[in-house]
Amino acid sequence: MRRRRECLVCGFRYTTYERVELPALVVDKHTGEQEAFNRSKLLSGLSRACNKRDVPLERLEALVIEIETTLRKRHGRSVSSDEIGELALEGLLPLDHVAYVRFASVYRAFDNIDEFQQELDRITATVCPVRRPGEAGAERQLASAGRT
């Protein structure tokens, strides 16, 4: 819940946010350690992937909320860091392909250029389905004639 408030002394206006406090999610790391789910840490990683891209911060915040909600519905209290990363990738793909590749390159820790290329080929096949010969030309002709 969002509330607009005003200081009674100086008249400064500010916004406060209230949300339900739910039991903490515990993240199982690769090292075997566990730590509390930190939504600001996830948002920071997504923001870095979207650096200098035209992705609104509000959309990234909504994605973090979607991920947290999904995790709570599936598992309750304990989740793996892998699942968080995969959900983040799923959410980034429709938002921005470059941000997706940036996040994937850090999250999946590609060892060489071939692994990177395999990921690019995989998302290209997902995002840009193969067209039949002649389809692209017909679309260009219609667009140039003003008949889209």
The neighbouring-strand order within the major sheet is: 4-3-5
Q: How many whole angstroms does the radius of gyration measure?
A: 21 Å
**Tally of alpha and pi helices:** 6
Overall number of structural domains: 1
The run of helices and strands is EEEEHHEHHHH
% residues in beta strands: 5-15%
**Spans of 5+ residues with little confidence (pLDDT < 50)?**
131-148
C-alpha termini separation: 44 Å
Can you count the beta strands? 5
Q: What is the arithmetic mean of pLDDT? A: 83
Helix content: 40-55%
Structural class: alpha+beta
Shape designation: globular
Reported for the largest beta sheet, the result is:
3 strands, mixed
Describe the structure.
By secondary structure, this protein is α+β, with helices and mostly antiparallel strands. It has one domain (24-129). It has helices at residues 39-49, 57-75, 81-95, 97-107, 113-127, 135-144; strands spanning 2-6, 13-17, 26-28, 34-36, 78-80. The strands form 2 sheets. The protein has a 3-stranded mixed beta sheet with strand order 4-3-5. A two-stranded antiparallel ribbon has the order 1-2. The longest helix is centred in the middle third of the chain and has 19 residues, at 57-75. The termini are far apart. The model is unreliable at 131-148 (pLDDT under 50).
